[in-house]
Model the fold of this input.
Amino acid sequence: MERKTFELLAECLAAHRVEHLFGLVGDANLYMVDAWVRAGHGRYTALTHEANAVLAALGYAQVAGRVGVATITHGPALTNVVTALAEGAKGGIPAVVMAGDTAPGDLEHLQKIDQREIVKASGAGFVELRAPDTAAEDLARAFRRAALERRPIVFNMRADLMWQPTAAAPVAWPVPQVRAAVPEGEAFDEAAGMIASARRPLILAGRGAVQARAALERLAARLQAPVSTTLKASGLFQGHPHDLGVFGGLSGPVTVEAILQSDCIIAFGASLSRQTTEAGSYLRGRRVVQVLADPMENDRRTEPTVLLIGDIAATAARLAKIMDEAEIPPSGAADAALAARLAGLRAAPPAPFAATAPGTIDAGPALQRLDAALTPDRVLVGDLGRFTVTAWGVLSVRAPGAFVYSCNFGAIGCGMGEAIGAARAAPGRRTVLLAGDGGFLLGGLAELSTAVREGLDLVVLLHNDGAYGAEHIQFTAKGMDPGLSLIHPPDFVALARAMGARALRIAAPGDIGPAIAALADRRGPLLIDLALDPHAMRM
Done:
């Protein structure tokens, strides 16, 4: 059957079982989007900025566990998404970005640019739509590469090809299953010996190990070792009596004590970045066994004592079996006393409010009370800023798939776009966005109108200290005037209400009650503006 290339591409999206498409239309992609929508293949969510369209695809991918898909037009649309592409590439998030492009012979087109080189610089991949008759196979290659390479792949669609006829059929290629073997050899024997001789072992799981909970818990039980996770794997050991929570800069006193007392850290699926290891201090003087399923090098990887490449669950199971065969006694590091201390922390009442400047609120106790009022079955999205030190330590999730990390590139303002995609991937669950005032002004405020239009069950906890926090701290620490870090933000509550969202401000403990009452109403977005003292924020 002959039809136009843009119609074939729409059919291909259906063949790839794409249910949600995020985008912003222009002359190079609008016909494809229109064909997909008219055919009823899925739901299209229009964003107000191209970067947020790509970020929404990244947020969707993290929660749905599948390739996210976004579409943009050419030229400035592509340059607008460079930060989002880098975020996805650094975070290992699979996405296909269907980007228009100008005709190669149209030398005077205002939006003409070398799109391949732009994409290459971001760390994303690039697949060219070669011709109408190869369009289906080219798009299938982009989807397969996104899944295997775990990064965004830009599918480059020339505008002059969209209306050309083709008789090609839709194609969707299966993604090969890549399974790592159980490691063998001297390195494995050395690792097993380290673990067997450890008196206080500790198991650390990263995002690469989230499918291996049962095997890791069996190993932990065999060793009598406490368990912990990286931030990205938050919630993996939810309910485990010896779950230490997040390992790293966000660790509480009990977790830090357990880390410092440990003599062997067995890290599964974790890159051991400096954020996780507190710049290496938590590994210093300890034997470290790192097990990764992916042999690809990582710029953030810290070199362990022993590095093993192999299947996470199978490697954990083999280690447990070896301990049994060698009759290695359990360590006793995870005992009833540690379980009791951890249970006491979880049952502790909210902290009292500390004194802050007039018209502001102590962030930690306020968030503790809001956390108790929020449904536990939620999706948590974090933007970047100094507020995250407190916020990530208070709000938790039940599973890693409910935690969306938007800070892989160290950019503020990525949270709102990813929150919209996450909300699409989790219908029936509430999405909670942790945002700062600077990041929200940069990438979130305009997109609040999208959340209103789409009726998303989204709560924005806006940490409003009127400053770029990290810069405020640097100026203050060096005895300089922090005035350059001040934002002087607008009235977010008034702006949110003008956009059609519900909104309120917490500036004193007495404002918590109305905020909790507002959380009970789940009709559309709710913005809670937390008025914070820039001089009282943690870092």
Q: What stands out?
A: The longest strand covers residues 95-101.
